[in-house]
Amino acid sequence: MTIIEQQKLGKVLWSIADKLRGAMNADDFRDYMLSFLFLRYLSDNYEDAVKKELGSDYPDTPTDVMQKLKVNTPLQIWYDENPDDIADFEKQMRRKIHYVIDPQYLWKNIYELARTQSNDLLQTLQDGFKYIENESFESTFQGLFSEINLDSEKLGKSYTERNKKLCEIITRIADGITAFSNDSDTLGDAYEYLIGQFAAGSGKKAGEFYTPQQVSTILSKIVTLDSQDPTTGPKKRIDKVLDFACGSGSLLLNVRHQMNRDGRRGIGKIYGQEKNITTYNLARMNMLLHGVKDSEFEIFHGDTLLNDWDILNEMNPSKKIEFDAIVANPPFSYRWEPKEDLANDFRFRNYGIAPKSAADFAFLLHGFHFLREDGTMAIILPHGVLFRGGVEKNIRTKLLKDGNLDAVIGLPANLFFSTGIPVCILVLKKCRKSDDVLFINASEGYKKDKRQNRLREGENGEPNDIQKIVDTYQFRREEPRYSKRVSLERIEQEDFNLNITRYVSTAQAEEPIDLQKVNDELKEIARRSKEALDRHNEFLKELGLPPIAD
């Protein structure tokens, strides 16, 4: 499917959502809409695999016959005819695609219940969600649908009203997407589009779970370059990638996308952590919806700053887990309450504790601790981390003196739904070849959109702001008013202030003024003015009127 068709599908789904949600809060309706889209993908993907597995044994039953049998899926017919083979069949399906779905919970059955206005729809959905959470996968997906309250009065005051509303929502979704492909790339991209649209409607709350795709692409391209020799191009493989504030998982999926292109061998395993329960569930759905098997990712629900994930909270150095690539868009200037014992925490003890007013460096140091020696980390932060004093200056200074800060990239303002301020990307490494810091001032490379500014992508003859940033970073290019390599000595002269405009200013130099030329022009203007006045006075004299004084 082309990008245009994918965008069309996204717009169709958004139009359905916008019309159906009525008075319901956009965030609430998002959970219903995305969950049903997710169920549709799981079901269709499962049925395609079932057809391949059963081959000629897959029931080719006409629709009218199924209606007489009161079943809505061919797989239900097979289950009814082969009860003794179900266990072995499901074992085989788990081995091949890592999950199973009981026929009664497949999307086709759910859709038929909705289309025929069956009063059993709501109860079937509730049972189906519990089944998927607890029984579909070998690894538990407990709480995957915990934010979907099918008993909510927002759907209706009575069971009948709620059931009727769900019938309408599911029928409209099914009819809207019937003409589109059900492959993971198509539905995955539509899912991402909807997340972005819901984020736009959520204002500042959107920053909790959504990184604009264009910014995500910059980070993903940077961390997938060969760390030892960026000029050789992209890495062939990444063993582990981490996003410790993963939101809906779009950054991690973008890294995966980069690593599945151009003959590369992909990623060994994806790791993410998210504190917000709603977005944690979005991330897990998003992974599966993009075709990532449950064995290929691990998303943890917990507090990154407290480091409550067992696999990261390992004090034994021999068991320390490390990552080839780390990406993150943590909440900007997050207020936190660090306890005294955090001063001895292995992540912070060599640097200091970020202030209560802004946990930006706490997030950075958390991720940096788990970075491999030859890995790359790219993190989005507010500009304040570049120049604020106190303990933040101390942390910044140590990172610089240790040679860990590779690049500072300034982005345009108003790229994010969560804030209109300009933000920056810090690129960090534990083992660098360069002894300078690359500053990129990309603040002027964008175009205005309806709600947010957008980085240009080289369409219709426009510049490609994204690729220019990546290429400039990769080859450490210097360009007037755009990028510069700056030595540590120079940065030290600036008292370790990393404010980008100190090193790369976009201000245009004023043209030098030729004072002699200006003086001659003023003299000429004065002479011509006097001539005009004298001539005018002659006319006044002829008319018998008094002259105008000089």
From TrEMBL:
<feature type="domain" description="DNA methylase adenine-specific">
    <location>
        <begin position="183"/>
        <end position="511"/>
    </location>
</feature>
<keyword id="KW-0680">Restriction system</keyword>
<dbReference type="InterPro" id="IPR004546">
    <property type="entry name" value="Restrct_endonuc_T1M"/>
</dbReference>
<feature type="domain" description="N6 adenine-specific DNA methyltransferase N-terminal">
    <location>
        <begin position="10"/>
        <end position="172"/>
    </location>
</feature>
<dbReference type="GO" id="GO:0008170">
    <property type="term" value="F:N-methyltransferase activity"/>
</dbReference>
<dbReference type="GO" id="GO:0009007">
    <property type="term" value="F:site-specific DNA-methyltransferase (adenine-specific) activity"/>
</dbReference>
<dbReference type="GO" id="GO:0009307">
    <property type="term" value="P:DNA restriction-modification system"/>
</dbReference>
<dbReference type="InterPro" id="IPR038333">
    <property type="entry name" value="T1MK-like_N_sf"/>
</dbReference>
<dbReference type="InterPro" id="IPR022749">
    <property type="entry name" value="D12N6_MeTrfase_N"/>
</dbReference>
<dbReference type="GO" id="GO:0003677">
    <property type="term" value="F:DNA binding"/>
</dbReference>
<dbReference type="InterPro" id="IPR003356">
    <property type="entry name" value="DNA_methylase_A-5"/>
</dbReference>
<dbReference type="InterPro" id="IPR029063">
    <property type="entry name" value="SAM-dependent_MTases_sf"/>
</dbReference>
<dbReference type="Pfam" id="PF02384">
    <property type="entry name" value="N6_Mtase"/>
</dbReference>
<keyword id="KW-0489">Methyltransferase</keyword>
<dbReference type="InterPro" id="IPR051537">
    <property type="entry name" value="DNA_Adenine_Mtase"/>
</dbReference>
<dbReference type="InterPro" id="IPR002052">
    <property type="entry name" value="DNA_methylase_N6_adenine_CS"/>
</dbReference>
<dbReference type="Pfam" id="PF12161">
    <property type="entry name" value="HsdM_N"/>
</dbReference>
<dbReference type="GO" id="GO:0032259">
    <property type="term" value="P:methylation"/>
</dbReference>
<protein>
    <recommendedName>
        <fullName>site-specific DNA-methyltransferase (adenine-specific)</fullName>
        <ecNumber>2.1.1.72</ecNumber>
    </recommendedName>
</protein>
<keyword id="KW-0949">S-adenosyl-L-methionine</keyword>
<keyword id="KW-0808">Transferase</keyword>
<comment type="similarity">
    <text>Belongs to the N(4)/N(6)-methyltransferase family.</text>
</comment>
